[in-house]
Amino acid sequence: MKILYPGTFDPLTNGHLDIIQRAEKLFGNVVVAVLENTSKKPTFDLNKRIVQIKNAVSHLSNISVISYEGLTVDCAKEVNANLILRGLRAMSDFEYELQIAHTNKSLNTEIETIFLSTNTNYSFLSSSLVKEVAKFGGEIDHMVPDSVERDLKNYFKKD
Ligand code: ADP
């Protein structure tokens, strides 16, 4: 079964990676869909985020990484996935995620949203928090894959 995992991934964290690995075991085929998301003014451009994810999943065989713009349900349809995957860390995620899931359902009733709860070890992680720590020179090697760590260190060296 194929499942679409959409997000901004600016950048990918170990929390995202854990979700991808568990989804691969559960569903077989995971398509990570990176949203251009100009409204969030990403730190890393689309290509950089895609390369970061490809590097982090290179040891896995059933993961593909694509970019998309527009509606997530349209992207799911395009790649032939009937499932959308989202991760849940806390109640604060739940309210927002449920609203998106209902919206997507109203747009396409064929597509179901599945939630995986975070791994306890990564429940505190978010892309923005990792960037905040990296900005002030804090240790991030337990939060992100190696290539993301390098990119973040380079990025904040510039400032
Ligand atoms: P978006 O901008 O679409 O929320 P994100 O890259 O922030 O994109 O997150 C993509 C998905 O991954 C979301 O469902 C989010 O809740 C989930 N996620 C983010 N961080 C974690 C984590 N540490 N553990 C589990 N899921 C997470």
Textual characterization of the structure:
A five-stranded parallel β-sheet has the order 3-2-1-4-5, with helices on both faces. The protein is globular and about 45 Å long. By secondary structure, the chain is of the alpha/beta class. Helix 2 links the parallel strand 2 and strand 3. The mean pLDDT is 95. The protein is built from six helices and five strands. The structure holds adenosine-5'-diphosphate. Adenosine-5'-diphosphate (ADP) binds next to helix 1 and strand 4. Adenosine-5'-diphosphate binds at residues 7-9, 13, 15-16, 19, 86-87, 89, 93, 118, 122, 125-127.
Provide a concise account of the structure shown.
The protein is an alpha/beta fold and 159 residues long. Helix content is 44%, strand content 19%.
Work out the strand percent: 15-25%
Relative helix content? 40-55%
Radius of gyration: 15 Å
Helix/sheet category: alpha/beta
Number of helices: 6
Shape descriptor: globular
Spatially, the strands of the biggest sheet line up as 3-2-1-4-5
Q: What ligands can be seen in this structure? A: adenosine-5'-diphosphate
Average pLDDT, all residues = 95
Gap between N and C termini: 44 Å
Give the helices and strands as they follow along the chain.
Answer: EHEHEHEHEHH
How would a textbook summarize the main sheet?
5 strands, parallel
**Secondary structure: number of strands:** 5
Unreliable segments (pLDDT under 50, ≥5 consecutive)?
A: none
